[in-house]
Fold this sequence. Notes:
The structure holds 2 protein chains of 2 kinds.
Chain A: E1 2-12, E2 15-25, E3 30-35, H1 41-48, E4 56-61, H2 71-74, E5 77-80, H3 91-98, H4 107-116, H5 130-143, E6 148-152, H6 160-173, E7 179-183, H7 187-190, E8 196-201, E9 204-210, H8 211-217, E10 218-223, E11 233-239, E12 242-248, H9 259-268, H10 270-278
Parallel strand pairs in A: 3-7, 3-8, 5-6, 6-7
Antiparallel strand pairs in A: 1-2, 1-4, 8-9, 10-12, 11-12
Chain B: H1 7-45, H2 47-78, H3 81-88, H4 94-130, H5 133-138, H6 146-169, H7 176-200, E1 218-220, E2 230-232, H8 238-259
Antiparallel strand pairs in B: 1-2
Helix pairs in contact in B: 1-2, 1-4, 2-4, 4-7, 6-7, 7-8
Amino acid sequence: xxxxxxxxxxxxxxxxxxxxxxxxxxxxxxxxxxxxxxxxxxxxxxxxxxxxxxxxxxxxxxxxxxxxxxxxxxxxxxxxxxxxxxxxxxxxxxxxxxxxxxxxxxxxxxxxxxxxxxxxxxxxxxxxxxxxxxxxxxxxxxxxxxxxxxxxxxxxxxxxxxxxxxxxxxxxxxxxxxxxxxxxxxxxxxxxxxxxxxxxxxxxxxxxxxxxxxxxxxxxxxxxxxxxxxxxxxxxxxxxxxxxxxxxxxxxxxxxxxxxxxxxxxxxxxxxxxxxxxx
Amino acid sequence: xxxxxxxxxxxxxxxxxxxxxxxxxxxxxxxxxxxxxxxxxxxxxxxxxxxxxxxxxxxxxxxxxxxxxxxxxxxxxxxxxxxxxxxxxxxxxxxxxxxxxxxxxxxxxxxxxxxxxxxxxxxxxxxxxxxxxxxxxxxxxxxxxxxxxxxxxxxxxxxxxxxxxxxxxxxxxxxxxxxxxxxxxxxxxxxxxxxxxxxxxxxxxxxxxxxxxxxxxxxxxxxxxxxxxxxxxxxxxxxxxxxxxxxxxxxxxxxxxxxxxxxxxx
Lengths: 279, 266
């Protein structure tokens, strides 16, 4: 569905951001995209929706080249940027303008999502607070029912009940034809809905594996004392009351994925992570 | 689904502009109307002042008006990364977006220029109607020989290019490309008027003409004739053609390059 083939990108020629990306993202999954600040998460999302172009190689999304920005391609994707400022138009005008672009838009879904997010039925959504504007835009994005949704930090600015509602909505929306890619630093907000992890580190895609594949190979445990044998340990972090340990899953017992710990390990022990996931 | 042009999709861009910026544009038009009214009152009550300063008025209204409108359009519709992102990922074709942007600028420039020309035409009509020929001819600006007219042209063209360069290099107000596109169309329209004049209106009796071309002036076949018989005199040398037509076309090609939205990245 999304194919990167020998994909290279840079803003400055002497500072490449992505080098020789070769991977595919299948449809029907919720992808979590993680990485340090400046690692290129937003740039990658921009590339997928055609806002920037490969410097070398090829990028195909739904068999389209995003850089060509064909309407047939754009009407099937929706990008929710990190910072949202709604246009100064009434709700009815907003819907009149934008719904006509998205043939699968559902007014019933939109109303339902607005209610779920507790957004008042205000005629001027641009007068709402930042968090409420974001929820309005998220509700619209999800109601468009596009096959691909890209979200950059969607939970930023959302209150706790809204984050919970957002997770519920995402879970209810998922089907085999829909793909969602979420770039976020708030891993815990979306841990329960993400089923595939992508981690960017030092110009490379370090991890591109499903949650099942990861937890099949790595166990995330908590011990009250430091493990005596460190051979199988990928990362050991001291925390309140004990140690959070990432170790090879020798016992083949699936534990709950701790995305924050995994991403942290990618930056601290990239080689060990790669080695553990390969075995 | 036509991926190049679809009328419904295209008109949606105008609907978006109307809903988002309709009020600002109407306010702009209102402002222009007020300025025009002020000019007209000056014309009626102080025709001498008007005759002396009408080119200044023309300059302020045309340059200021066009800039105001295009500023509103670009500043509020296309400027800034958020708005640019929103425009680029809108499911319209690059062609539709390109035509839309161009049309917005062209139509607005055209409307502002035409309103101004028409205003000046009406103003001159009032002056010529209400002012006796003798008094008119005694005014310093009334009879404009060709050479005088050319230097006047030159001043305005230099002003145009200096303005272009100023806005092009004024990085504090945006990138060079953004500066170009603000001034490119007014410049092109002025040049286009010259092309029209050169090929179609040379020495044409313009008594029924309903608008005055820029940088042309009324003058009489002979001093004894009435104002209905004035001529609009034009004509450009090769150097004029290079300065007033070819250079603006070169600038236009730069603008077209810029406007190729398909090359635009965030």
